[in-house]
Amino acid sequence: MSDGYSDDGLLAYKTPYPPSLPANEPNWEQSKAYGSRRTPTGFAVRKLNFNDPTGQGKFKNQDWPFEQRLGYPSTREGWHPLIFKYGLEVLDAAGFINFETTKPHTYNPNGYWESKRNRSGLLAERIHPVLRKEMWHLFTDEEYKTITPALLLATAILDDPVMLCLFYALSRPTDQLTTFEDPHLGTCKKLDIPATLTEQEQWEVHEKLCAMREWTSFRWDNSQIFVDSGSLAATTPDCALGRDIPASGS
Asked: Is pTM beyond 0.85 here?
């Protein structure tokens, strides 16, 4: 977004672009012949020379040493397509395997607004205010720690400028709705999502998301509601917290 951050080619948060094979090698069955290394935005890829005595897979001296092998780790059938294409080493380097919240990790997701709200550099303040510890009713510190990697990724999504465009439209339905006639359904409404937002509009919708803290909390629940509805999560009135919140379904 031109008004939100500099157009330097970097992502708004730190989930890297996946590796891609050269145009003359579009078949991922050949991915094991390639190696990769991390770049600021993703992975550089080059073919490997398996006869290189240095073990660095070089064809010539100026070739960079590879850091990850692409492709599936063995010839056993039935690998998941993601592992078949990228391999476990690439997925690990991208931050999707065995993520440890207690160790610094260059490539774990950073929300777009994280630097603006986190002056102290604390892990807890990297998480979106709507998802922080105090919002998870009766969670222990250990339980919250187990979901921290997922919350960091959710923060990156909530903070993404493109996603803010959607929330902006949702928060202004009278301005962003178009009515049209469908031959089968009759009168319908379409949400018009702006392609970009000014920085002021981004702040506006970000603050509206943060205001959800006044009306939202999360908790584990063994309620029969999940059995009855076949759902994994549900929204219900939370009278226990002294808040009068209307239920909105599962």
From this structure: no
